[in-house]
Amino acid sequence: MALPTLILATRRSALAIQQSNGVKSELERKIPGARIELLTMGTTGDRLRERPLPQIGGKGLFTMELEEALLDGRAHFAVHSLKDLPTELGAGLTLAAIPPREDSRDALVSRTGKPFAELPSGARIGTSSVRRAAQLRRLRPDTRIEPLRGNLDTRLRKLREGSLDAIVLAAAGLHRMGWQEQITEYFPVQVLYPAVGQGALGIEARAADHSTLETLSVLEDPWSRICITAERSLLRHLGGGCQIPIAAHTQREMNGVSLDAIVIRTDGTEIIQANDSCPEASVGTAEALGKNVAENLLRQGARRILESTP
Length: 310
Known about the structure:
D-Maltodextrin-Binding Protein, domain 2; 310 residues; five-stranded mixed β-sheet; Double Stranded RNA Binding Domain; alpha/beta
């Protein structure tokens, strides 16, 4: 008996389609006879490419339309970059699976091949991220941080055209597109803290669609789930989103996990840092770990920085 065809909702960008095709291939590999079709969609964040994300405001800029397709039955599941997915999902939706996480680091792509430390004073560095911009300003206050929107290929094209000296991107996106050779250098996570969930995919589905949830469970990576749970718990308890200067990194330690996080002023002049760990990792202890680190940051004055963010 043939398995029913499942509809996968995805953004229209080349990277989103590449990621979704990877999920499709993995499902078809693990479940012989599985049939997956892609439903490509535009999102608010895609349509407003010329405006900096903080000016648009709101949450779910790259996910809302995909969630609507789940809720009205046009799609069975959606594939997101987890850093774009709000910590509070829409009513009736659940994070069905988190596949193995890709590289969470940020990467520098330099037009001349010079690493970050060797870029000249006044170098123009492009990024779409408030988090990256704040940390780059702190690391190199002598450079000029320029807003840079657009899909991955658009950003690389703008770099080649010469209006920028370098750009900073998520390494995972370049890896998934097979463009590793364009990377000049990787930033260690202790130097440029990643976004919450960076490098991970989130598979979202209707909470009541038990058949689809069972199918998607073959994609789940327990350690990625634990690490992402800690990071998203931190973000939720701080009340932030993907365009707030909050950054975090989790690391597996034997049977436990550690969480290191920062809140940074957008001009890079003030930074608050906190870390903690739990020796026995589970989804429950990861949730508590994120809460503990968030409370530590708030005790140090993180709320003042977050409320001052435009």
